[in-house]
Amino acid sequence: MRNGLEPFPTAYQAFLLYLALVLCEVVVSSALRDANGMLGLSLEQHQALTVLLGNGCVFALVMHFRNITYRSLFHDSPSSAKATLALIVPPVLLLVPALLLFMGYVQELLVRIAPLSAWEEQFFQRVGTNDIATVLAVCVLAPVLEEMLFRGIVLRGFLERYSRSTAIFGSAVLFGAVHLNMYQFLVGLVAGTILGWLYERTRSLIPCIALHGAYNSGTIVLTGLAQSTNGELSIEAILSMWTASLAAAACGAIALRRMLTNRSGQQLPEQRSP
To answer: Domain ranges in the chain?
Structure first.
């Protein structure tokens, strides 16, 4: 227990925290809409600012009342941030291509079973655009803010209250659920489980943000590739992509297993000097 306070949040408190986040974003969005005549924001800029300011309000309040510093939120490990960045992030990034291909295949199956609605098609088309505001929101803001919330606050508290598996799976379910559609729920569940394991092993948001940002960036790249090729690739190209991706993922997984699985949740290969 940190700072003499009870571990936060419980599962119920995490749900309330999510509702507070949604409420803050609604309020901020309404305020920006009212001021848009003066600000002249595009839809993408409006959405990016809504996420940034809404999340910022919630994080500021939680961190103030829980006495959490940004330094401890982002990196609460006895290992240095440099060690985490140099030793853990590279093998983590090797997992991304295979994860993108696998989840893309799963989402394609889901779309065939349950076709997208009109508003869902519009949503995914907006996410796939490459304007600066969208890229910033999807590749930078979302990874940083979502990891701060779901791993830095929610999972951090869950690990102090529940078993390791329950904490990781519970935070992953919540992470998937907040995306509000079944296509991204499954992606969130799988990615949230991997991200949760990384955080539990390292107690650092650095590898989590790196994986999250790389995955989101990859989705934009693959969407652009699919549009430019009309979704048509040769069998040889597909096999080459899968072979290279699986080989990279295997190397990354082996490296992470050797560095992290035989260590306690707060230990990395290189330790700070006492």
So the answer is: 75-260
